[in-house]
Amino acid sequence: MFFLMSLSFSQAWSQEREDTRKEGMQDPNSFQLEIEIPSSLDEWEPRREWLRQKTLVNAGLWPMPDRNPLNAEVFDRKEGEGFAVSKVYFESLPGYLATGSLYEPLKGTGPFPAVLTPHGHWEFGRLQNQGAGSIPGRCIDLARQGFVVFSPDMVGYNDSFQLPHDPNKALRQMKGDKPLPWEPRAYRPDFHFPEAEYNGLSLGGLQLWNNIRAVDFLAGLENVDPERIGATGASGGASQVILLIAVDDRIKVAAPVNIIGAERHPGCRCENIPNLWVDASTLELTATFAPRPLLMISATNDPWTPLTPEREFPMMKRFYALYGKEGNVANAHIDGPHNYNADSRAAMYKWFVKHLDARGPLIENPVEYAELSSLGDLRVFPDRTLP
Q1: Cα-based angle 299, 151, 328 (whole degrees, multiple of 5)
Q2: Is the previous residue joined to 361 through a cis bond, with omega within 30 degrees of 0?
Q3: Looking at residue 175, what is its pLDDT?
Q4: For residues 384 and 183, what is the distance between their CA atoms, to the nearest angstrom?
Q5: E-strand spans in 289-385?
Q6: Which one of 14, 148, 158, 350 has the largest count of C-beta atoms within 10 Å of its C-beta?
Q7: Could you give the domains of the chain?
Q8: Exposure string (b/e) for 96-112, b if CB count within 10 Å is 16 or more?
Q9: Phi-psi bin for 242: left (phi > 0), alpha (psi -120 to 50), beta?
Q10: What's residue 21's pLDDT?
Q11: Are residues 104 and 139 in contact, defined by beta-carbon separation less than 8 angstroms?
Q12: Among candidates 125, 130, 145, 112, which has minimal Cα distance to 348?
């Protein structure tokens, strides 16, 4: 009798307490994106502001942390054909170092437009140099076209080894030519910091803050025009761009590559900030960037963006139409897999040179930069010793 009563109570409880949270998740795996495109700016602007605040709150960045002095160090400059590359570190938070590479033009005089280009979950992080995605090749080309470029490390990749990224991914990211073995003194087993999590700061929130401070770094360079800063990245790098453009108005032109999808949310927890995708989507977060120039780069065999020309792009145009700026959004649909290959890069170069008023000349047919080793070791801390 007690068992039957418990069973009936359990059934009643499950009926009364049915979990409806998934109904508010607009683009997780296996759910079709369904959003209502606003019919006017009066409808859209409050929603836009809500999305921006939601991103900051869920990222643990509301209220915004104090902007401590960056104490940036730029050193070990090397020159190639038409560009120079330097090593960089700065304190995005007191005692925590954001790291990366700074590429600059060798021709012309500044101030130049600038580009922030975070990388995705490539095996070798910002040093990935393959046909599907050459981060150094992208940066070198941009510098040759008249841009100052900062290529930061994701948390736990390459030189950002103070904190981990993911125990199944981060251990391979420490060197540009081969993986390194597990080093227990250099890693925590996971991103687990109860005090930070108590205040809402997650891996994704830290990466967003690093990118906000990276814009501070770029905007503070003497040879950079702070009114002409763009952002681009692919996959996890594109997710970082989307979060950044949703909260930082200093980004004037953007090109997220292969991530704005109506059937899937991004894949890593650094992109899936807790509760971010409840009643929100990658498409809507990107739409907060309107009416500034946006290039949506997609691919035929990409899991996220195979139908962009007939699905996500027309939806995005409706947001831009609210401002009468349909010409400020475009789609480049590439025949290929999940990538940031030469074709994708060529489309981005054309968009950025035009909308950030770079001096060029435009590189229309980019090739892979094969001689990365000729620049020497681009790691900021090659001996794994922090300053």
Answers
A1: 50
A2: yes
A3: 45
A4: 11
A5: 294-301, 329-337
A6: 158
A7: 30-375 (3.40.50.1820)
A8: bbbbbbbbbbeeeeeeb
A9: alpha
A10: 56
A11: no
A12: 145
In angstroms, the CA 206 to CA 119 distance is 15
Structure tokens at 320: 């831009």
Give which of 116, 165, 360, 384 is closest to 269, Cα–Cα: 165
Contact call for residues 292 and 250 (beta carbons, < 8 A): no
Return the pLDDT at 269.
81
* Model pLDDT, residue 361: 93
Task: Identify which of 327, 334, 373 has the alpha carbon closest to the alpha carbon of residue 351.
Answer: 327
Question: Which helix (H) or strand (E) element contains residue 296?
Answer: strand 294-301
Measured in whole angstroms, how far is the alpha carbon of residue 244 from the centre of its chain?
Answer: 7
**The predicted structure's pLDDT at residue 9:** 43
pLDDT at res. 267 = 79
Displacement of CA 77 from its chain's centroid (Å)? 26
Residue 4 corresponds to which tokens in the numbers above? 């039957």
Q: How many CB atoms lie within 10 A of CB 270?
A: 26
Residue with tokens 């606003």: 38
Supply the pLDDT for residue 339.
94
Query: Rg for the chain (alpha carbons), in Å?
Result: 21
Between CA 305 and CA 311 the distance in angstroms is 9
Give the chain's residues under pLDDT 70. 1-34, 166-192, 369-371
pLDDT for 323 equals: 98
Distance (Å) of CA 195 to CA 129, 166, 167, 271, 336: 37, 19, 20, 21, 43
Amino acid sitting at position 166 = D
The pair of structure tokens assigned to 181 is: 């073995």
